[in-house]
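Intended use. Records like the one below are meant for learning the mapping from a protein sequence to its folded structure. Do not use them to infer anything beyond what is encoded.
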Amino acid sequence: MVVSEIKALHLRSSWWCCVQLYDNKHLTNKTRRMGTRMKVLRVFKDLHKTRKDVFKDDSRALTAARLQINEGFKRNKNETADENIKEMLKMAQAVETILRENVIQAEHIEENKVLLRPRESLLLENVPYCDKPRKKT
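Structure written out for the chain above:
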C-alpha cells in the first residue's frame, strides 16, 4: 500500500484499521497475549465457581481454597513464556475437573458415622443389573 492510500483509509475508516496497517506484527502479538490473558481469567473464574459449589456451607474449606487459588495465580502473574503458561493452564483445568468430579463433602456426626453430601452433578441414575439378556421384539 502506498502512503496516500493509507492516509485515505485513515480518513474513511477508524483509527484501528490504520494501526493494523502500520503495525500488524505488534497487534498479532498483543492479540495473542490478550487471548492468553482471557484464558487465564476464565480458568481463574472456573476454579472459584467450582470451589463455591464443592465446598458449599463449609466456610473453613471455602477460605482455604480461595487463598490457595489466589496465591497460585499471584505467584505466577509475571510469567511470560507461552509454554509455561499453557502448562499451568492445563494443570489448573485438571485441578478444577478433579474438584468438580471427585470431591464429595463429608461431615462427622458421631464417632463412627459420617454424613456424605454429594452434589446433584455427581449422582448417577441407578440402573438395575440384569443377568438375563433382554428379548428383542
